[in-house]
């Protein structure tokens, strides 16, 4: 395979490190493609990103700023913010058994509709309605 170079079905430490590096490179490549499409990418990183461009870039790769940026940033700052947000989303998915923030919110609303006594657990009588 591409990472399991010996075909053993197991990853040694060097192969695991290669896998992590490839994942990171893929993420950066996706970000770069999105920023090129928005004309925000410069090979020499000599671009200033306005708060409006920052928000557009975040949204274009599926990220939504919790708190909008009030000042501009450079290209490195934007890429850092994109990577940081993606890491937070991955952490949230792990924490919530693969569900994203929106899905958790929807599931919580359904649960709360049945949890009439707001006890945090569902009794049989609450499920029968």
Offer a concise description of the structure.
With 129 residues, this protein is mainly alpha-helical.
Structure characterization notes:
The chain has 5 helices and 2 strands. With 129 residues, the chain is mostly helical. A two-stranded antiparallel sheet has the order 1-2. It starts with 12 loop residues before the first helix and ends with a helix. The relative contact order is 0.08. The mean pLDDT is 86.
- The share of residues in extended strands comes to under 5%
- Count, helices: 5
Order of helices and strands: HEHEHHH
- Give, in spatial order, the strands making up the sheet with the most strands: 1-2
Low-confidence stretches: none
Protein name: EF-hand domain-containing protein
Domain EF-hand: 102-129
GO molecular function: calcium ion binding
Show the helix and strand layout:
Layout: H1 13-37, E1 48-49, H2 51-60, E2 73-74, H3 75-95, H4 101-114, H5 124-127
Antiparallel strand pairs: 1-2
GO molecular function: calcium ion binding
Domain EF-hand: 102-129
Protein name: EF-hand domain-containing protein
Main attributes of the structure:
calcium ion binding, 129 residues, EF-hand-dom_pair
């Amino acid at each position: 395979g591409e990472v399991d170079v010996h075909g053993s079905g197991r990853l040694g430490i060097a192969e695991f490190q290669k896998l992590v590096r490839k994942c990171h490179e893929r993420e950066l490549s996706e970000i770069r493609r999105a920023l090129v499409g928005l004309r925000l990418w410069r090979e020499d990183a000599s671009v200033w990103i306005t708060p409006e461009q920052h928000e557009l870039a975040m949204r274009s790769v599926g990220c939504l700023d919790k708190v909008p940026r009030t000042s501009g940033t450079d290209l490195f700052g934007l890429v850092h913010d994109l990577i940081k947000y993606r890491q937070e989303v991955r952490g949230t998915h792990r924490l919530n058994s693969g569900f994203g923030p929106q899905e958790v919110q929807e599931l919580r609303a359904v649960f709360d509709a049945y949890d009439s006594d707001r006890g945090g657990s569902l009794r049989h009588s609450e499920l029968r309605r």
